[in-house]
Amino acid sequence: MQTPLIADPFALMLNPEAVFSAIERSERLSGLQRRVCRPLDKPLLANTARDQHDAEIDAEPDLVEEESEACAAL
Questions:
Q1: Domain that holds residue 20
Q2: Which stretches of sequence are listed as region Disordered (predicted)?
Q3: Count of structural domains, the chain
Q4: What is the CA radius of gyration of the chain?
Q5: Which residue of 23, 40, 67, 73 sits 20 to 30 Å from the alpha carbon of 60, by its own alpha carbon?
């Protein structure tokens, strides 16, 4: 006779075999469509708009430097 699956998640951690056997017997889980998704395996696409914006920001002079130079001139 099989023991009923305990609803307490902490008790389930003590008996993982019961969890795996319940998963294997589940008709609802076996009816699910399965597919493997690996989004991190896709090559990175270049974000040219972001790269262009970053280059424009890097090309601008720093305002902090301009203000400190203006204060030093006084």
A1: 9-33
A2: 48-74
A3: 1
A4: 30
A5: 73
- Nearest Cα neighbor of 19 from 30, 3, 34 is 3
Q: What is the token pair recorded at 74? A: 């006084």
Largest CA distance in the chain: 91
Tokens of 71: 């204060």
Residue 1 resides in a domain = no
Q: What is the pLDDT of residue 1?
A: 43
Closest CA to 19 of 2, 31, 35, 33: 2
Confidence at residue 10, expressed as pLDDT on a 0 to 100 scale: 82
Residue 17 lies in a domain: yes
pLDDT digits (tens, 9 = 90+) for 16-54: 888 888 889 999 988 888 887 777 766 666 667 778 888
